[in-house]
Fold this protein.
Amino acid sequence: MTIEEGRNQVIQGFRLMEETSILINQAILDAFLFTWQWWLGIGLFIIPWIVWFLFRKKESTGRLFAAGMIAIVIGVTIDIFAAGMGLWLYPMDFIPYSLALFLPYHFSVLPVGVMFTLQIRPNSNPIVRGVIFAGLGAFIVMRFFRMIDFYNPKGWPSIYDFFIMLIIYLVAYLATNIRGYEEIRSSDKGETTYNFKFLQRKQKVR
């Protein structure tokens, strides 16, 4: 296959993706919109964030929110690759042009679950908390989604979901517990300071 043939094949693939997006959007508008499943999905997308905002550990809001964003990035990245390879799929969608992702899970249930797990008994063993989080997510939450046709694992074992969620939690935990959250402002004047000494050293060498 030549480069030109490869480009044409990629263009054809994008056209197929456009057709797929049209089919999914049409299903949302004609079949899913305003059904109880659709309302449940919208509720799962919004309510967990409201609950977290009300019951979050306020003095740790920044770290917890960073952990939630990390969980979203990792979860979406894994899902794009896995769904693209046909490992699993989501039979229902809730918002047009959402790339066939399960938005209530990726952008709400998963990150909020990570944030709440981080703030509950923060001095306990993080691996134990991660195992509990992953066990509840893989063997209860995802199986519930499967029962109501929000998730079709296509034979994907739940134990694999367990390890994926455990890794997501541990990465979020490690990333938000490193000693790298010092304020940028200086302690006396409240102004932003920058260290350009390395530039001065380079100039001396020249």
